[in-house]
Predict the 3D structure of the following.
Amino acid sequence: MNDSPTQSESQAGVGVDVDMCVVGGAGHVGLPLALSFAEKGLKVLIYDINEDTLAVIADGRMPFAEEGGEQLLARALKNGRLFFSSDPNDIPPKGTIVITIGTPIDEFLNPVHKVVRECFDILMPYLADDRLVILRSTVYPGTLEWLEGYLKEAGRSPLLAFCPERVLQGKAIKELAELPQIISGSTPEATKAARAFFDPVVPEMVELTPTEAAFAKLFDNAYRYIHFAISNQFYMITNSAGVDYYRILEGVSHNYPRAQDIPTAGFAAGPCLFKDTLQLAAFACNQFSLGHEAMLVNEGLVLYIVERLREKHDLANMTIGLLGMAFKADSDDIRASLSYKVKKALSMHTKAVVATDPYVTEDDSLLPLEEVVKQSDLMILCVPHAAYGNLDPQGKPVVDIWNFLDAGSSIL
C-alpha cells in the first residue's frame, strides 16, 4: 500500500462504516488497541494527526516495537478492517470513540486539562447522545466528572467512560487479552456500554467509579515508581560505603520470600511513571511526600553517577560511551529516557559523549555499538538491552548499576 492515508481507499472518508474510532490511534496506547479489536472482526478507524506515522502503518509496518503487532497489522490490512485519517471530518457518525489522549503535566509539575478539552472541542460535532466515548489514557481524578459537565454545557450527552490501559509497553496486545480491565462510566448506562465494548477482547472486568478508576491507574504507576526508588536509594547508600549492593541483595533475598520483589537498581523513567506520580502529588496538594522523594531519588540517580565518576576520573580528558538510550530494556521508545539526562550532565564535564542503541531509530546522533566501544575510555550501561548480554568491552571499564553484565561493575 503506497498511497498516503489521506488518499488511500482504506479510510473512512470514502464513506465506510466503522465500528470504532481510535483518536490518537497511531501511538503506543491506541494502535495495539485498534489491532486487538480488528483481530476480533471490527472495522476500526485510526485517527491521528501524525500523517507520517499513519502512512507507515498503512504500508503494513509497525512504527514501534510491539510483540505480535506486525502479524495483527498484516491481517487487519488484508481483511480490510483498518482505516486511516488525519482529518476530523472523516470521523464517522456512529460507533464507539476511544480517546488515547491523557492529562500531561506542565513545567510546574501540575496536570494540564487543556489537551483533553481541545480534543473534545474537535470531537464535539460527532458526540451524539448515547454514543459511547471511552477515555483510555491516564487522567487526573475528577476529569470524567468535569468533562461530563463541560459537554452538557455544549448540549452534548454521550456515554462517557474511563477504562484505563494498564499494560506493559511492547506487550500491550498480549496483556490486553490476559489482564483484567477496569471499567468505569459517568452513568450506569455508560458503564454497561463499556462492558459490552470490551467483552470480546478482555478476560475479566472490574467495575469502579470514575474517580476510583483514575486513582487505580495513578496508584499502579506511583507504586512502581516508589518501588524502584527504594532500590535506587539502597544502591546509592551501599555504593557510597564502598559495598556491593548486589552481594547484599543476593544475601537478603536468598530463600527469603519477603525480599523476592526487591528490584535491581536502575533508571526508572518513561512517559508514565514520573508523570503519574506527580499527578497524584498534585491532587494531594503536594502532600504526597513519598512520591516527591521517589522523584528526587530516581532523577537524582543520574547526578549521583556523574558526581561519582567526576571524583574518580579525569573526565575532561575522557570520552564516555552510553549503552542504550531508550527509556527501558528492549524498547525503541526514548520518551522521558534518563539516558539523555546522563548525556546532558556528562557533556558538561567530558571531552566527548557518544551513544548507541540497537533499537532506537529516531536519534541521528547514535553510533554503532562497535564504534562506541572503540571511541570510549569508559562506558555506562544506561539500558540493559538483551542485545548487550554478550558485550565485549575490549578491556575498558563499564559502569553497570543494573548488575546485568558479567564484564561490568556495580560499584562506581
